Amino acid sequence: MIDSQHVDFVVEKVDFVSVLMQDLARAKRFYGGTLGLPIETEGENDLEFTLGQVTLDVFDPASIGRPFARSSAGIAIRVGDVAAARAELETKGVAFEGETRDTGVCHLAFFKDPDGNQLILHRRYAPRD
């Protein structure tokens, strides 16, 4: 247990999360086109998209001398209706992994971006305890 009286900093919010891609034009088509995320900034080696309340930074790690590595951890994208969002994305060619899951707390549907990074459509429907 962390003693909050001895914390030297206070987290205000998450400013951005990053995902690595090898082809920024393809990333722009997927995140901007297929998912419909608004572009915040576009640079030579990175793109920033608005993903709800956080910025999604998509960049090519080769631009900073780092190797590419896909993320299997997943970014959970909150939507109003997982089934409806899944159906819409499937019409755009997005392949989902298995059926939509009902955990008793939320609905989840798993898919990947073109470079294999794990993404999740998510909606919590049960209150937190």
Topology:
Elements: E1 16-20, H1 24-34, E2 39-42, E3 46-51, E4 54-59, E5 75-78, H2 82-91, E6 96-102, E7 106-112, E8 118-124
Parallel strand pairs: 1-4, 5-8
Antiparallel strand pairs: 2-3, 3-4, 6-7, 7-8
Descriptive tags:
alpha/beta; 36% strand; globular; 129 residues; four-stranded mixed sheet; 8 strands
Report the biggest beta sheet as strand number plus sense, adding barrel if it closes: 4 strands, mixed
How widely separated are the two ends? 19 Å
What is the percentage of strand-forming residues? 35-45%
Low-pLDDT windows of residues: none
**On the 0-100 scale, what is the average pLDDT?**
93
The total beta strand count reads 8
Helix and strand element order:
EHEEEEHEEE
Continuous helix count: 2
Q: Report strand order across the widest sheet.
A: 1-4-3-2
State Rg: 17 Å
Describe the 3D structure.
With 129 residues, the protein is of the alpha/beta class. Helix content is 16%, strand content 36%. The chain has helices spanning 24-34, 82-91, and strands at residues 16-20, 39-42, 46-51, 54-59, 75-78, 96-102, 106-112, 118-124. The strands form 2 sheets. The protein has a 4-stranded mixed β-sheet, with helices on one face. β7 and β8 form a beta hairpin. The longest helix is centred in the N-terminal third of the chain and has 11 residues, at 24-34. The two termini are 19 Å apart.
